[in-house]
Amino acid sequence: MTDHYQQALKQIIDTGNYRRLPTPRQVELNFSSNDYLGLSHNRQVIEAAYQAGLSNGIGATGSRLLSGNYDLIEQLENQIARDKNCEAALVFATGFQANTSVLSALLSKQPSLVFFDKLNHASLYQAVQNTDCTLVRYRPCDLNHLRDLLQKYAHDSSPKWIIAETVFGMDGLTVPLNDLKNLAEQHGAWLYLDEAHATGLYGSRGYGLSTTVDLPEKTIIMGTFSKAIGVSGAYIACPQTIKSYLINYTPGFIYSTAPSPMVIGGVVKAWDLIPTLNQERQRIHRLSDYARQKLSDLTVLGTQTNIIPIIIGDPLRVMEIKDRLLANEISVSAIRFPTVPKHSDRLRLAITAHHTQDDIDRVVKELSQ
Ligand SMILES: Cc1ncc(COP(=O)(O)O)c(C=O)c1O
What domains are defined for the chain? Predict the structure, then answer.
């Protein structure tokens, strides 16, 4: 009975890609956290979560459509809609849930043509695989390639979608958003943007790269509360009609318990703090440039963001280096196939507002050995 599963595990062990949960521990120097602004330990955020729990309970008690709707979650959605310059917003318990359930619902009613950046997150892949859309993948952030493909399908009358992250979580690339927007408009395509790694770090008030561009009406933006916001959950910012459609057609929304009021209380406070954190954002970008410059002898991808991938190209070697760093109290993420393409196994450094120049010097010194 278990032979099949043992066989599958053996295969993954043989390729060097076997995953195991790391032992929970505190390290002196953490470069593997997505808590870019340090909000997960912010006292005001934790206090707001506690107060929200006292007023509303720790659990939402049901789906939003039954007993689980509450003022705080509607307040958050209204605030997000304003800050993202969209008509409406809808909150989900996790980013993975938001991407898979929302995109499946949007793409399910009519066979669509989906132009899809190859580097997109697993949740976006999972979403399109749940539908009968035609998937047309373009090279990472290569808008010339996207343009050619859109041109190739110009006479196809199916609804068209372009799906991309605005800041790519594994490569640290940013999408040329103005050009992407122009292509979407020229071809009448819907734009679906994942701002998981942009929310909190980009835009004049920190509310994401999407706020720096005047986006077409047919735009849907997803972002998470699990990275720079420091809590968990996700939002969809979209036209009001799309919000109403999602409330009626998204099983992952209709049949799932609403996020905990404590989580939402914390998110409301963290979201509020985002525009006050300009200095922290500047510090992150300055330190990231410093780290890239110090690491220039290694194969480092990305040129602009706080996500710094160091390509090793061999899964076993990546784990070896990660373990060696951990023995010296430094945590970095080891990212292997299939999360990233074969032979691009890497260490991923995430620079946060809590790092110092000395911290960067220390990890660079360890890495150069
Ligand atoms: C680009 C992107 N989208 C979606 C998600 C999923 O978000 P969450 O961790 O909140 O489920 C992630 C998380 O790693 C991500 O990097």
Answer: 43-275 (3.40.640.10), 277-368 (3.90.1150.10)
